[in-house]
Design goal:
The chain is mainly beta. The protein contains 1 helix and 12 strands. 29% of the residues are buried.
């Protein structure tokens, strides 16, 4: 499954659609402005909230939290003791860990579980400026979760660059 993300509007308070490879709107990322912390909602085409994404308020390192129906689904933070600046760890609620590594700010990175590729985020396939693709490799993977992970990692990397 391949999704297309128009990147130019990415920021708190900005809303943007994520389309499938046929150009159909699939998800809306709704950036919530006027909040004390960075907050996004991933919605379906009917406006139903599928995933809540927010920055954890009191954490030693910048951390984004992903929730579904009020339940914690994952926490994302830059990997400690990593020689690579662009390496993030996703800790799922069940303790499972996903690794995200690559050129985050260039939108060229991968999401893996135990060395197995789950998704590739890349601008290589796109001819449209300010756009990147999220290619979900495994059929049994949760596309909404992987898109939320990509949104979080990009947001954390951009905040780190600003900071």
């Amino acid at each position: 499954m391949r999704f297309l993300v128009r990147d130019r509007l990415l920021g708190i308070g900005d809303d943007y659609w994520i389309e499938d490879d046929q150009g159909n709107k699939v998800f809306l990322v709704d950036g919530k402005a006027l909040r004390l912390r960075d907050t996004f909602e991933l919605k379906d085409v009917r406006g139903r909230v599928l995933i809540d994404i927010r920055k954890k308020m009191f954490a030693l390192r910048d951390t984004m939290v992903i929730e579904r129906d009020g339940e914690a689904l994952a926490a994302i933070r830059r990997k400690r003791l990593s020689l690579l600046r662009n390496h993030y760890r996703v800790t799922l609620a069940d303790g499972t860990e996903l690794d995200v590594s690559g050129k985050i700010l260039d939108r060229e990175f991968a999401v893996e579980y135990d060395g197995e590729l789950l998704a590739v985020i890349s601008r290589r396939w796109r001819h449209i400026r300010e756009t990147y693709g999220v290619d979900v490799v495994r059929d049994d993977a949760d596309p909404a979760l992987l898109i939320a992970v990509a949104v979080c990692v990009i947001h954390l990397a951009e905040k780190e660059r600003e900071g």
